[in-house]
Amino acid sequence: MPIKQTPYGPVDAKVFRRLQDSFETMKVLYALDAIDQIRYDICEPDQMRESFLQLHQMVHHLFNGSPPGGRIEHESVWELADELSITLSGYIEALEPIIEMLDKLVDLAPDPDEELEGAYDDEEGDDDDEEEEAQNDVS
Fold first, then answer.
1. Secondary structure E strands in 1-105
2. E strands within 37-133?
3. Which residues contact 26 (CB under 8 A, 6 or more apart)?
4. Spatial contact of 48 and 39, defined as CB atoms under 8 Å apart
5. How far is Cα 25 from Cα 7, in angstroms, rounded to an integer?
6. N or C: which end of the chain has fewer CB within 10 A?
7. Alpha-carbon Rg of the chain, whole angstroms?
């Protein structure tokens, strides 16, 4: 498939045309919203970090015989592990459509063995018209 030159690098021309007709650019901003929410949940406040530290204290005490740690807010190791697992599964679920969207854009990568279709032009067909005029001038 020919390569199309764009202001943001060369792309696979066929994939470019397909995405030009179907890609919802707002999905990039929706992805940013999801990332911001995950970042907030993980970083503010340090709840997840504290939960993992408590889990470590619990399993370190249970499996390695270390002295019990400081104040533990959960009564059951498995409940804390389940809570963290559910939270992280939710993040994975939120990230999967973002990865799918990004993979569609990765598909724009051109095959290095293909030829360049022409310079980037916002308007369809202008490159062909200019090439025809140049050929007519030569004749």
1. 3-6, 9-12
2. none
3. none
4. no
5. 17
6. C
7. 26
Q: Which tokens sit at 58? A: 């619990």
Q: Encode pLDDT of 23-79 as tens digits.
A: 999 999 999 999 999 999 888 778 888 899 999 999 999 999 999 877 777 789 999
pLDDT in tens, 70-120: 777 778 999 999 999 999 999 999 999 999 999 999 999 999 888 776 655
Q: Reduced to 3 states, what is the DSSP secondary structure of residue 60? A: helix
DSSP tag of 45: S
Q: Quickly tell me which residue has 């202001």 as its tokens.
A: 7
Alpha carbon distances (Å) from 14 to 4, 56, 73, 96, 115: 9, 51, 56, 25, 13
DSSP letter for 116, please: B
